[in-house]
Amino acid sequence: MRGLPGALAAAAPERSGVVTSVVGLGLEVEGLGCGVGDVVAIETADGGNRARSVEAEVVATARGSLRCMPLGRLAGVRPGDRVRARRGAVLVPTGGALVGRVLDGLGRPIDSLGPIDGKGMRPGERVPLDHDAPSPLQRARIDTPLQTGVRALDTLTTLGRGQRLGLFAGSGVGKSSLLSMIARGTEAEVSVIALVGERGREVREFLDDDLGAEGLACSVVVVATSDEPALMRLRAAFTATRIAESFRDRGAHAVLMMDSLTRVAMAQREVGLSAGEPPATRGYPPSTFALLARLLGRAGTGATGSVTGIYTVLVDGDDHNEPVADAARSILDGHVVLDRRLAVAGHYPPIDVLGSVSRVASKVNSGENQALAAELRRVLAARKAAQDLIDVGAYRAGSNPLVDAALAHEAEIDAFLRQGLGEQTRMAEAWARLDQLTTILGGAR
């Protein structure tokens, strides 16, 4: 009798609907009783009258009609096309078979290495896309530093295992390059990288040049390029998050890197406006900011494992107070600012140390290490405050010992803060170098 309910469900008549209109980025469907988030399949024909199926997701409902947005091309879809509701929850592949693979926004392999199921994946390693964030009272405290291999981050903006950090910068400043350095230098067991809204040309360059074979060997990459539908870009962000969560649920410590959070917000703006939401701040509907909170809240520590989230934020016109950047900064546990002036000067990684903050650094660093970081920050802050006087030649040596130390050992400071793309530094070595640097700076005062 246990199989009777399933048999009855399979024998039940299948309801179908029809497309009533196709406008802009979405379409209207009547005749189906689906809910928001359900997936439907549209049976249509291409230009050669060959039958094909287009999947779409329900984004809004009204009395007797559904508003859907496609997960594929809408070309050829017309009023009168038959629509079927797809049964079952949306599933995402998980497990060790994904490591070293490149997937699309639906979790399907696009790297020509064969199907994932052929790599020994068990049926239970496919999980529903929807997942609740860990309960605030069940999250383990963040008390362990996470090595990134980047000296300026590991010492002056130390990450904690399970932290959520934002990389804020304008276009072309070096966010993707910094992500690739972290992917190769992190001590996390696995890295999940989501490339959302990237140019198609940049994906191959990131995989071959920035990430490389060494980085890909311990990573899972999820890709949705800028030419794909808005829902595919959104789905890629949640698919990558769900894969990282699955590693955390098994007790592993994963790093989730998303490039970029701004393009996720832009995709949600397209969906929200198409569904009839009113535009609010700079055209972003209210659902955009609710989605950011829900997406970012799913990273962090669990009862055992952790997901350290690192999200790039593409600031509009280098305005770090634009709506998406401001909302992300209020949710995240820290932010790293990349400075265009440093990048133009050839200073890589172009991290604005004084403008960057890790809210958990004091919880994961010893008091001695905190003092070392604070000492270098004081020297850098004094140099910045006196920069105008230095530029016009009005600064007099001896006026400020901190500024004198910064000027006397400018080369040593730059050598510590600069780092080649392929250069990796162990955290213990980074702290030892900072100790030597602060000793030199202190001796100059």
Protein described:
The protein has 445 residues and is an alpha/beta fold. It contains 15 helices and 19 strands. Strands 8, 12, 13, 14, 15, 16, 17, 18 and 19 form a nine-stranded mixed beta sheet that branches. Strands 1-2-5-4-3-6 form a six-stranded antiparallel beta barrel. A two-stranded antiparallel sheet has the order 7-9. A hairpin with a 4-residue loop joins β16 (300-301) and β17 (306-314). α5 (230-249) crosses α6 (261-274) and α11 (367-385) crosses α13. The protein is elongated. The model has no long low-confidence stretch (mean pLDDT 90).
Summarize the helices and strands and which ones pair or pack:
Layout (H helix, E strand, L loop, with lengths): L3 H8 L4 E8 L2 E5 L8 E7 L5 E12 L2 E6 L11 E4 L5 E3 L8 E2 L22 E3 L16 E2 L4 H6 L2 E2 L3 E6 L5 H11 L4 E9 L1 H17 L2 E7 L4 H20 L3 E7 L1 H14 L11 H12 L2 E2 L4 E9 L8 H9 L2 E5 L1 H5 L6 E8 L2 H4 L2 H19 L1 H5 L9 H8 L1 H8 L9 H17 L2
Parallel strand pairs: 8-14, 12-17, 12-18, 13-14, 13-15, 15-17
Antiparallel strand pairs: 1-2, 1-6, 2-5, 3-4, 3-6, 4-5, 7-9, 10-11, 16-17, 18-19
Helix pairs in contact: 3-4, 5-6, 6-7, 7-8, 11-13, 11-15
Task: Give the overall shape, derived from the CA principal axes.
Answer: elongated
How far apart are the termini?
85 Å
Specify the biggest β-sheet: 9 strands, mixed
Proportion in helices? 25-40%
Count of DSSP-assigned helices: 15
Task: Classify the beta-strand content into a percent band.
Answer: 15-25%
Low-confidence stretches: none
**Helical/strand content category:** alpha/beta
Mean pLDDT: 90
Radius of gyration, taken over Cα atoms and rounded to an integer in Å: 25 Å
The number of E-state strands comes to 19
